[in-house]
Design goal:
Layout lengths: L14 E7 L21 H21 L3 E7 L14 E4 L3 E4 L13 H10 L4 E4 L12 H4 E4 L4 E5 L6 H11 L2 E5 L16 E3 L3 E4 L7 H13 L3 E4 L2 H5 L6 E5 L2 E7 H6 L2 H7 L4 E5 L2 H4 L5 H4 L1 E3 L7
Parallel strand pairs: 1-2, 4-5, 7-8, 10-11, 13-14
Antiparallel strand pairs: 1-15, 3-4, 6-7, 9-10, 12-13
């Protein structure tokens, strides 16, 4: 009999899409509401470092048994293209969603060649495109705005300008999720811009900064909902959230499930937290310090493929 983490989990995709930027730079249009951003020094050096980090990260994931579809971005108009999880997501049953983005220069990240690859290599039944809602000032930035429990069908969402409740409800109706929205702030009282810096849901555990949810009743409701799904709660401190410990993603390899996270995030976890994670998923730290200057980490760089492959 196989070990539990060897069995495929709908929560943990076995394939991901990554974008390798050739002219990476921190996006000025997102700085206003992303407190995780830092401005590095030399842009040429930063671009080279980011290119190298994505190259090594893709190689490390492939060595771990994860299928990586690596696309190039040779343009200079899309500074955040390295974070594709914000503009599209894929779902069991052959469904794809395309999302409306708040920063204007992020809307250029949407690529037909990626959707075409998905249709060619995987079973895609339909593509639901919400991007037209940008004209109405309504935004829902994909699996940055929502952290999805694919097993219990819950969409957790921290309220922000990038997570509109109207589209959240519409998405949940189309894709059969229960919306669970809440207010979340960092230690300085700033609204957390994307839910996926606050929490990560894996098959058997959830990493979450419970202290970021200020309302005690809502905090308990979120905790109870996660625990009712049978998951172990691994509570993250404000320090750990700032080190991107919540910005992780569980993936399925032939040898078992792995938790992909940054080296920064890995270093912030306690020995006890690492032991709890490794009861069901092997930790896979990936070093992307330059990319983290842009306010996102490993989870943001990986768009999971929750689709069945077509026979080739």
């Amino acid at each position: 009999m196989s070990q539990p983490n060897m069995r495929p989990s709908i929560q943990a995709p076995a394939a991901v899409i990554m974008i390798r930027p050739h002219h990476f730079v921190v996006n000025e249009q997102t700085a206003a509401d992303n407190a995780f951003q830092r401005t590095p020094a030399s842009s040429d050096q930063v671009a080279r470092s980011a290119f190298d980090e994505v190259t090594k990260m893709a190689g490390d994931l492939q060595k771990a048994g994860i299928t990586v579809h690596l696309f190039e971005d040779e343009g200079k108009e899309t500074p955040d293209s390295v974070f594709p999880n914000n503009w599209f997501s894929t779902h069991a049953g052959g469904h794809v969603a395309i999302y409306p983005m708040k920063p204007e220069n992020r809307r250029r990240e949407r690529r037909s060649d990626i959707i075409d690859m998905l249709k060619h290599d995987y079973r895609v039944q339909d593509v639901i495109d919400y991007s037209g809602l940008e004209a109405d000032g309504l935004f829902l930035e994909g699996t940055g705005a929502m952290v999805l429990d694919h097993i219990d069908r819950v969409a957790y969402a921290a309220k922000s300008d990038r997570t509109d409740p109207i589209i959240l409800e519409r998405f949940c109706t189309h894709f059969n999720y229960e919306p669970m929205a809440f207010d979340a702030t960092d230690r300085n009282g700033n609204a957390i811009y994307h839910t996926n810096v606050l929490m990560c849901i894996a098959t058997d555990f959830a990493l979450i900064g419970l202290n970021c949810i200020k309302d005690p009743q809502r905090r308990q409701e979120v905790k109870d909902r996660l625990e009712s799904s049978g998951r172990t709660i691994i509570d993250l401190s404000h320090d750990q959230i700032e080190q991107f410990a919540g910005n992780a993603i569980e993936l399925q390899s032939p040898e078992g499930r792995v938790l992909a996270l940054s080296q920064t995030a890995f270093d912030s976890l306690s020995d006890q937290q690492k032991e709890e994670i490794e009861l069901s998923a092997k930790l896979l730290p990936l070093s992307i310090p330059t990319i983290e200057h842009a306010g996102g980490s490993v989870r943001c760089t990986l768009a999971g493929v929750h689709l069945l492959p077509r026979p080739q």
